Amino acid sequence: MSVGTRNLALEHLHRNPAEAVRVLDRHPPASVAEVLAEAPPETSAGVLVLLPPPEAAACLERLPVATRHQVLQACSAPASAALLRVLPEASRKSMLEGVADRERKQIERALRLPPESAGAAADPRACILYDDLPVEQAIHRLREGRAAVESTLIVISRHRRVQGAVALGQLLVAPRDRTVGSLQLAKARTVSQGVSLSALVSDERHRAEPVAVLDPTGRVAGVLSEGALRASAKPRAPQRAAHLATAVCELYWCGIGRLLGEAIAIQSVAPQTSGGSRAEIFH
Q1: 3-class SS at 145?
Q2: pLDDT tier for residue 253 given thresholds of 50, 70 and 90
Q3: Which of 23-27, 61-65, 187-191 has the lowest mean pLDDT?
Q4: How far apart are CA 5 and CA 1, in angstroms?
Q5: Type and span of the H or E element at 163
Q6: Per-residue pLDDT at 165 exceeds 90
Q7: For the segment 83-118, what is each residue's pLDDT rounded down to a tens digit?
Q8: How far apart are CA 189 and CA 153, in angstroms?
């Protein structure tokens, strides 16, 4: 990061965190952490909650330990949970060691999401576009990115609020000097992170395009992709039902075998029976 960019970021940190995010965007986490370490914990917290969770967590890991604890305590519990949720469980526990008991317990409660909820299934690394990005830069980022690109992309503001959705085809043919937010955006599907995944996929409207999952503050915590929604919508037979079906099949075939054995036995007895017709034997 150049000296000029660093000074500009420091200036924006105190005045407008969203502008600071714009300046720091796409810089390595280590460089961003160096800038944030010079600001008060409350200011750094205000910037981290506006960064994509994976990038924010990477910056948080690179802050001095004492500063890290202060920043986590300065964030709201849902915001801290959103940053930590992308980390492995062991890393989360390590990051929370040293945080004041009250704040730590609140963060731990916020981290606990039902396993079948939208928040637990959402991908925090999904491709999301900022509304102020020029179309040319947006396309470049999609090409550079490692995450799979959906046919429909969620568009958000620098405050991580949903602005709409744009089709990939529409983005590719748009004038390169326009911003993503200036395009004709469709209404994006959104749900809170506590919504049951089964309830969500039962609504067919949510299966055809990605869904933005919102944390309790209204910021985007992740995205449920079209593939994840389709996979969740597939009916899965409960294990007990599968066992019951197997047992019924076994009984069925055992019954068929017994009936065939009886029929063969009857056939072998039939020639020895005198004075009776075949109809009399079976009746």
Answers
A1: coil
A2: very low
A3: 23-27
A4: 6
A5: strand 162-167
A6: yes
A7: 898 888 889 888 898 889 999 999 999 888 888 888
A8: 11
Token digits for 262?
């009886």
What are the angstrom distances between the C-alpha of 117 and each of 107, 200, 223? 18, 9, 13
Positive or negative CA dihedral for 29, 34, 40, 41? positive
Q: What is the C-alpha separation between 156 and 158, in angstroms, rounded?
A: 7
Q: Which fold has domain 3-112?
A: MgtE N-terminal fold (1.25.60)
Q: What is the DSSP letter of 16?
A: -
Work out whether strand 220-224 and strand 211-214 pair parallel, antiparallel, or are unpaired. antiparallel
Looking only at the bridges linking them, the beta strands covering 189-192 and 162-167 are: unpaired
| Structure tokens given for 30 | 């280590």
Residue 202 dihedral angles phi and psi, to the nearest 5°: -70, -20
**Residue ranges matching CATH 3.10.580.10 in the chain:** 121-233
